[in-house]
TrEMBL record:
GO biological process per UniProt: amino acid biosynthetic process; aromatic amino acid family biosynthetic process; chorismate biosynthetic process; quinate catabolic process
Catalytic activity line of the entry: 3-dehydroquinate = 3-dehydroshikimate + H2O
EC number: 4.2.1.10
GO molecular function, one term: 3-dehydroquinate dehydratase activity
Keyword line: Amino-acid biosynthesis, Aromatic amino acid biosynthesis, Lyase
Gene label: aroQ
Descriptive protein name: 3-dehydroquinate dehydratase
HAMAP family xrefs: AroQ (MF_00169)
Active site: 22, 99
Species in which this protein is naturally found: Marmoricola endophyticus
Highest taxon listed in the record's lineage: Bacteria
Residues under site feature: Transition state stabilizer: 17
Amino acid sequence: MKVAVLHGSNLNRLGRRNPAKYGHHTLDDITVDVEKTAATLGVEVIHQQSNAEHVLVDFVHEHQDELDALIVNPAGFSSVGYPLLDALRDTELPFAVVHISQWHAIDAKERVDIFAGSAAVYIAGAAWRGYSSALEALVHKIRQD
C-alpha cells in the first residue's frame, strides 16, 4: 500500500511559525513520525509540501496511479483550493484531511473547509499527531474494504 502526504502553504515553517498555536514540531519531525507509523503498518509513504497549490495538483496528477490513498493538510488552501480538491476527487481514492489546530473553530463564520465533505477521514486539533492518526485510520478503512 502506498499513501501520499501533502502539506499546504506555510507548513514548511512549522516549529517556528506561531508555536503557541501550531507547536514546536517541525515538518521534518512530522515526516519522521509518519514514517515510523507507516513502517508499523507495512505502508510506503511519499511526501510533498508546497506553498504553491499548482505544485500539489501536479504532484497528485503525477503519482495518483501508484497510490492507494492520500493525506492532505490544505492549510491556507482550505477555503479556496478548488483545483487541489478537484485533483483529489478525480483520483477516486480515499483521502484524509488533517489540520494541526482546530482550524474550523477559528473565525468559524468566515472559514469553510471545502475539503471536509469529501474526506474519508477528517482530523483537526490533534497537533502533529493528527498525521499518523489519519494514516492509521485510512489504512484501516482500506483494509476493511
